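Handout, page 2. Input:
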Amino acid sequence: MRKVGVWIDHNKAVVAVIEEGNETLETVESNVGRHAGPSGGAGTATPWAPHTANREHARERQYEQHLVKFYQDVIKHLGTPDQLMLIGPARAKNDLKTELEKSLLRDVPTTLETTDEMTDAQVMARLRAFQKQA
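Output:
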């Protein structure tokens, strides 16, 4: 039986695997970068003239596209798990679950759990504990 645990945020994912008594741990970096905040358009010297376009929506779309690519990369590292545990502090685990539902892994039993920052050893320990529960 292959059990996989993923601790994930928008910066990285730690993929822990337990299969036939063997344990492996792998880190996948997102390389997404910092989420840019909003910025205003630039005005012109002429009053009531049109302003230049605000690129906020384009930046937001680009950021989201980078995250989707990151989630798809993480999915490639999962292999074919029999059970899957997604853990992390915020939205990333839910977004990864959404991407999983679009993939061939949509039928894999998946547990979501909210946690703070974890070390690699803590992720593996949590997967071991999850293994005993299931």
